[in-house]
Design brief:
By secondary structure, chain A is α+β, with helices and mostly antiparallel strands. By secondary structure, chain B is of the alpha+beta class. Classes of the chains: A alpha+beta, B alpha+beta.
């Protein structure tokens, strides 16, 4: 789309969505005209306002709950659902009708992401909705909001970028790309959120970033959103005399974010109140959580405050009589927010239980260890080799280093508005570095904590057009299919599985892996299921590499894939030898295909998002 | 009183009154002459005093703003409650709710700037032709501008109002709906 007037960035967040744009015609070089697009939405029944953020909530009202016209939007007389501000507010009072954290469900391998399963606690009469459809609804709302405000330059004709967690697996990426298609984003590109945050930092520096980083730097991006924590490592190298950025590693998907912190604080205060004989209802807990977030920020930013009052109104019209007063003390905030979520741990510490325990849970697989610093230790430890292949990095990491040594840190997410949390992460990291005689890491200043992801996405669309520096790196995992080994079956034991590499680490967008020599016999007309694996550390496996055993830490099982051969031109039941081909699309999704021997055909292999 | 016809007796009293006033009060005599000449016909109309125009404001946006203050800051609940029975500490706790919420509602919907940028207590001079609706001189108010005085209050000016758009038929009289928990 060379005629696009704008590059639009969509931050499709777990708790909020945001829309930003770069005016391509008015931007040149480092002079970039970037803005946030306000999003009209229902803020109360029948009342529409523009807000910079669209809360990622969807509410399914009862037929008698609202007056006609209460769900009106500037572009729609009324839908059967509400998204945004009103949805969040209504949902606080009627949680059984509220869909929240749809994005976390979208990458939850234990459930069918296309099945109507949300709200997960809904009683039978409520017509549920799928995590996938929920994402479509949010994207549709943003689409219509943009078109409402820019009727001359409809969204579908602009350069489009949608952000996703770096830890999204191929199936979740595919679902996001499909949701974008369904919502009328014809050629959107996916961008990892930590990369987007770095792009935003680069853009905001107005060219000055080249003075703040140097060749040989390893930038750690710590992105703690409302509900997820995303970690990435980006190395700075030199190529043809210019600085180049390489994303060398991404972390696991950690369902742990700022909201968990505020909720933990709220429950601490609620316990204090309960001890005094005051019980709060869920509606009040929500108000309390909000109050605790403000109190936390006040306490963490002013070292002289010993405590901050937290008040929660009752629901009745007796405001004074119904208001409950308590307070949050410095000790509580320090012990919970700092010591609970960012404890002083050692570089060798690991989260108590693996973040992604099983694939069989029904609820969301929340991180079981709340200590973000321990997740960080695990990530850096696992990625100790991440830069060893990079040009010019060979001798940077000293012999015997137990983890990868970052030299600079960029923070993202509203949580880090509280400066002591930034200082704590830097302090912990620098203690680890000091213990291995490495220089302290620098803090990259000037990040926009709340809107960086949306802004960076719009800027990325501009950079893709040829202006400015790009972050390279390709896929952050190598991918494998499970192949039953030829060992004789042992009664009572599952046949051992070998992993065949079909896509190497670091495949760039728009590239295709070579074909592995191994063939599989597929039965025409019958779906064939393969187990599917990914590794974020095996950087040297090439297509065709067959692993007979591996360390659980090295390779994780993803949801399976399924090949379904159409019967056209073949007899049903016939066995066709095929090879599996992998490619990374321009959008940024992984495409798997089955190629029959000696034929020109290509059959799509689907991710089994229906479990 | 017009249109009434006084009785004969009272008319005698009135005639005497008119006689003596016309005799001793030159201005009254002038008016009486005009009265006797009858109503002026199409005379260059005496400059009719400009009719005061008071505009009726639509209650809709007032109710809407009140609704927003209630929704965010429980303002109506607070004002309608009897504060006499509560201690200052209890009222103080509730005021935090009202203050935080109403402040948010105010900032979300109305942009305010101080009219005078000087700090309060500073000496300032009002030049001739100052905007009397935006600046109100008080106290020893004599003579002609420029006036010099102490800035007692900086004033506020709403530079932008952003009220939510409403669905047709939306009932703004509902400041807060009744809530029924099922």
């Amino acid at each position: 789309m060379s005629e696009a007037r704008y590059s639009i960035g969509v931050d499709l967040g777990t708790t909020h969505c945001a829309l930003s744009y770069v005016d391509l015609a008015a931007s040149e070089g480092e002079e970039v005209k970037l803005a946030i697009c306000p999003i009209p939405q229902l803020t109360a029944p029948g009342s529409v306002e523009e807000r910079p953020l669209l809360p990622s909530f969807l509410y399914l009202p009862h037929a008698d709950e609202l007056a006609p016209g209460d769900l009106i939007l500037p572009w729609e007389a009324g839908q059967a659902w509400a998204v945004g501000h009103l949805a969040r507010d209504k949902g606080a009072q009627t949680p059984i009708r509220l869909v929240s954290s749809a994005k976390s469900w979208l990458c939850h391998a234990g459930v069918d992401r296309r099945a109507a399963i949300l709200p997960s606690e809904a009683p039978e009469e409520i017509e549920q909705i799928s995590p996938y459809t929920t994402s479509v609804r949010y994207l549709e709302h943003l689409h219509k909001a943009w078109n409402q405000l820019h009727p001359e330059d409809p969204l579908e004709q602009q350069e489009l970028t949608i952000t996703i967690p770096a830890s999204f697996d191929p199936a979740a990426r595919e679902l996001t790309a499909e949701a974008a298609q369904a919502a009328g984003y014809p050629h959107a590109t996916l961008l990892e959120e930590p990369q987007s945050a770095l792009y935003s930092w680069i853009q905001a520096s107005g060219g000055n970033w080249r003075e703040q980083v140097r060749v040989g730097d390893v930038i750690l991006v710590v992105d703690v959103g409302g509900g997820t924590t995303d970690l990435s490592l980006i190395a700075v190298i030199e190529r043809d005399g210019a600085l180049e950025l390489h994303r060398v590693a991404v972390g696991e998907h950690i369902l742990l974010g700022g909201d968990n912190m505020d909720l933990t604080l709220a429950h601490t205060v609620a316990r204090k109140l309960a001890a005094q004989g005051t019980r709060l209802d869920p509606w009040q807990i929500r108000a309390l959580t909000h109050g605790c977030r403000n109190a936390k920020e006040a306490l963490l930013s002013d070292p002289d405050l010993a405590s901050v009052p937290v008040v929660v109104p009752g629901r009745s019209s007796k405001l004074i009589g119904g208001t409950v007063r308590s307070e949050l003390t410095r000790d509580e905030v320090t012990s919970i927010a700092l010591e609970g979520f960012f404890p002083q741990v050692d570089a060798g510490d690991r989260p108590a239980i693996r973040a992604r325990a099983g694939l069989t849970q029904l609820g969301l697989p929340y991180a079981q260890d709340p200590a973000i610093t321990r997740h960080l230790a695990a990530f850096l430890g696992r990625q100790a080799e991440a830069t060893s292949d990079l040009e010019g990095f060979a001798g940077n990491l000293p012999e015997g280093a137990s983890f990868l040594h970052p030299t600079a840190v960029l923070f993202n997410g509203g949580v880090f508005t509280a400066q002591p949390l930034v200082e704590r992460v830097m302090q912990v990291l620098n203690r680890w570095l000091d213990a291995e005689q490495a220089p302290a890491a620098r803090l990259l200043e000037g990040a926009d904590l709340d809107l960086a992801v949306a802004k960076g996405a719009a800027y990325y669309g501009y950079v893709r057009g040829g202006e400015g520096v790009r972050i390279r790196g390709g896929t952050a995992q190598a991918y494998y299919v499970g192949v039953e080994s030829a060992m004789p079956a042992v009664p009572g034991m599952e046949p051992p599985v070998n992993a065949l590499c079909i896509a190497p680490f670091g495949m760039e967008e728009g590239s295709e892996a070579e074909l592995p020599p191994q063939e599989f016999g597929l039965i025409v007309g019958e779906p064939v299921h393969f187990r599917f694996f990914g590794s974020s550390v095996r950087r040297h496996d090439t297509v065709g590499t067959l692993l007979e055993y591996w360390d659980e830490e090295e390779i994780q099982e993803l949801e399976g894939i399924e090949a379904n051969l159409p019967a056209e031109g073949r007899a049903s039941g016939e066995v066709v030898p095929v090879r599996l081909s992998a490619a990374v699309t321009e959008t940024g999704t992984l495409r798997l295909e089955a190629l029959p021997r000696g034929g020109e055909e290509r059959w799509k292999v689907e991710f089994e998002v229906r479990s | 009183m017009t249109g009434q016809s006084p009785s004969f007796i009272s008319r005698i009293g009135l005639a005497f009154q008119l006689f003596f006033r016309a005799l001793f009060n030159a201005r009254f005599a002038g008016s009486a002459t005009e009265l006797l000449a009858g109503p002026p016909v199409e005379k260059a109309a005496p400059p009719e005093p400009e009719k005061p125009v008071l505009l009726e404001t639509s209650p809709d946006s007032a109710l809407q703003l009140l609704g927003l203050m209630q929704q965010e800051g429980r303002l109506v609940d607070f004002l309608e409650e009897d504060v006499a029975q509560y201690s200052d500490a209890e009222i103080g706790a509730a005021v935090r709710v009202v203050h935080e919420g109403c402040r948010k509602a105010l900032h979300d919907h109305i942009t305010l700037i101080p009219i005078q940028q000087e700090t309060e207590g500073a000496r300032i001079t009002l030049e001739p032709g100052f905007d009397a609706s935006a600046i109100r001189p008080t106290g020893n108010l004599v003579g002609e501008p420029p006036f010099t005085g102490t800035l007692a209050h900086r004033g506020w000016r709403a530079t932008e109002v952003r009220l939510p758009k409403l669905a047709k038929g939306h009932d703004v009289q509902i400041i807060a709906p009744a809530e029924v928990e099922l």
